[in-house]
Amino acid sequence: MKAIDIHVHPYTEEVLAVTPDWFWGHARKTFNFDGSPITVEDMVRSMDEAGVEMSALLAFDCETTHGWKVSNEVVAQLVAQRPDRFVGFASVDPNKHELAVLELEHAVRDLGMRGLKLHPPTQHFYPNDRAHYPLWAKAEELGIPVLVHTGHNQSGGRMQYGDPTYLDEVALDFPNLKIILAHFGFPWVNQAISVVWIRRNCYLELSGWSPKYIPETVWRYAKGIFPDRVLFGTDAPVMTAARWLKDFEGIALPDDVKHKILYANSRRLLFGDEGGAPGPDSGG
């Protein structure tokens, strides 16, 4: 089956040069992955081997709280090396308020970013804080999905900001905004499922976990309640696509539901359709 990985941190030399070691330190120990940088060619090779057609590369801005960022420009430059295989998700620091809104508009209109990544535990903000509503409004105006970290965090973030129920209010107040709940909200799994169930502009994303460790309740709702709003992601380099997809083979879901999770749902979010994107065999 074809796949689109909606959650990839580009672990390249350019990115690692501006990322403090503590950010990945705990995750490297937990998931036992190599700390060496990779190249765009390495990423494409791994995608080819796993059968991943496209990946979303994520920027990361936490300047207000921690004084560093993986800039939108850096990610846009990586995407530009293989635009047939990558799309970019911008990141802005919500605590910059009006500047964050302007930076998002620049990232989408001028840099070609196709989404926004926010990380409340590291950026230290409550998604339903009205001070950040102009940012949600801009994302809705631009027509881009917003990928929001929900649940606990391996990189020193403050857990209280990761409660997925904060996004219920945002989804209700911005009904045309597509909101992706990353990591299915663990440990607030039932809360994340509830938000996605009742807010049809919300999506459940499965990155950072092998499918065999994802709670059965997630698969039950993915199959029976909202199969059109569940998304495959790895959280690479934490989880490799090869491992995730291999373990996914053992999950008892109909083939049409698996296709939606792996490909069609993300394709529709990113491009407005469910097929026809360039693939590994396109010669691009």
Briefly characterize the structure.
This protein is an alpha/beta fold and 284 residues long. The chain has 13 helices and ten strands.
Report on this structure:
With 284 residues, the chain is an alpha/beta fold. 42% of the residues lie in helices and 15% in strands. It has a single domain, classed as TIM Barrel (Alpha-Beta Barrel), CATH 3.20.20.140. It is built from 13 helices and ten strands. Helix 10 (189-198) links the parallel strand 8 (179-182) and strand 9. The chain is globular and about 45 Å long.
Notable characteristics:
eight-stranded parallel sheet, single chain, disordered C terminus, 284 residues, TIM Barrel, two-stranded antiparallel ribbon, alpha/beta
